[in-house]
Design a protein that fits this description.
- This protein is of the alpha+beta class.
- About 30% of the residues lie in helices and about 30% in strands.
- It has 7 helices and 8 strands, in the order H-E-E-H-H-E-E-E-E-E-E-H-H-H-H.
- It has helices at about 40-50, 80-85, 90-95, 190-200, 205-215, 220-245, 250-260, and strands at about 55-60, 65-75, 100-110, 110-125, 125-135, 140-145, 160-165, 170-180.
- Strands 1-2-8-7-6-5-4-3 form an 8-stranded antiparallel sheet, sandwiched between helices.
- Strand 3 and strand 4 form a beta hairpin.
- Helix 6 (about 220-245) packs antiparallel against helix 7.
- The longest helix has 23 residues, at about 220-245.
- The protein is globular, with a radius of gyration of 23 Å.
Length: about 260
């Protein structure tokens, strides 16, 4: 099943209250609007091209501090993908565990939107409520989130980040990262394992619903499309060679090149 996009790993600490402030103003470093600081290897790129997610470490700007980042290529354009991420009111229909998500405040400051919502969730046989503030920049295709510290949530602290990049073939590259503060009695290795497990499933709901919104299962599978393009280029080159160089068959060579590439 899909996990919550906000990494709902913290335990309840107090009953939620709209008219009481949170007991701190934020302990975790917030994410910043903009592209992530991450380097992807050739093997990462190959895995992403096949539609599989990649987990990476993301620099935070603090010496010695890094956060895990999930990256996945989705067969839909960025506007469709970002629309799914920002469709907060329908998280209860898209994200397993969210039973309700109700907006209670929205502000606009230049190109930046600030949206506050109440999340009701049911996870690990527990029901919890927390208040989240989302900051969204449509032009940069980026959204960050953190607790609304003017209200008392049943979580200690949570911060997170979504970023959507336009890539080739009509696909989008989605970056997701989040951090939650767990009680001190939870061992570090257990916390890391829980976060990794949640991250692995964080982008799957976006992938599914973005392709559903496309109405045709998303863009054409990238590996096949790339091989067709490669085969077409080889066929064209061999056709030109056959035309101007004697002894080269003009039709057989391109057909054979096409068959070899499509069999890969």
């Amino acid at each position: 099943c899909d996990w919550l996009p906000m990494l709902t790993l913290s335990l309840a600490v107090a009953a939620a209250a709209e008219n009481e402030p949170h007991y701190h103003n934020g302990k975790l470093t917030r994410y910043e609007i903009g592209p992530p600081s991450v380097l992807l290897s050739r093997s990462d790129e190959e895995r992403l091209s096949s539609g599989k997610p990649v987990m990476q470490a993301m620099e935070t700007g603090i010496v010695g501090a890094r956060r895990l980042l999930m990256v996945q290529d989705i067969a839909a354009p960025p506007n469709v993908v970002m629309d799914r991420i920002m469709d907060l009111a329908h998280y209860d229909k898209m994200v397993d565990g969210v039973t309700r998500n109700v907006e209670y405040n929205r502000e606009q400051e230049g190109g930046l939107q600030r949206i506050k919502t109440t999340y009701d969730i049911a996870v690990l046989h527990m029901k919890m409520r927390y208040f989240m503030e989302h900051e969204y920049d449509p032009e940069k295709r980026c959204m960050t989130f953190h607790l609304d510290y003017e209200r008392l949530s049943e979580f200690s602290d949570t911060v997170g980040y979504w970023y959507v990049e336009r890539v080739e073939d009509g696909w989008s590259r989605v970056y997701y990262s989040a951090d939650s503060q767990l009680p001190s009695w939870v061992p570090g290795f257990a916390r890391d394992k829980l976060i990794q497990q949640a991250l692995r499933q964080s982008t799957s709901w976006v992938d599914r619903h973005a392709q559903r919104a496309m109405g045709k299962g998303g863009a054409e599978p990238r590996p096949l499309l790339r091989r067709i393009k490669q085969a077409g280029a080889v066929a064209l080159a061999l056709s030109l060679k056959a035309r101007f160089l004697p002894g080269v068959q003009p039709l057989k060579a391109p057909r054979e090149a096409l068959r070899r590439l499509l069999r890969k």
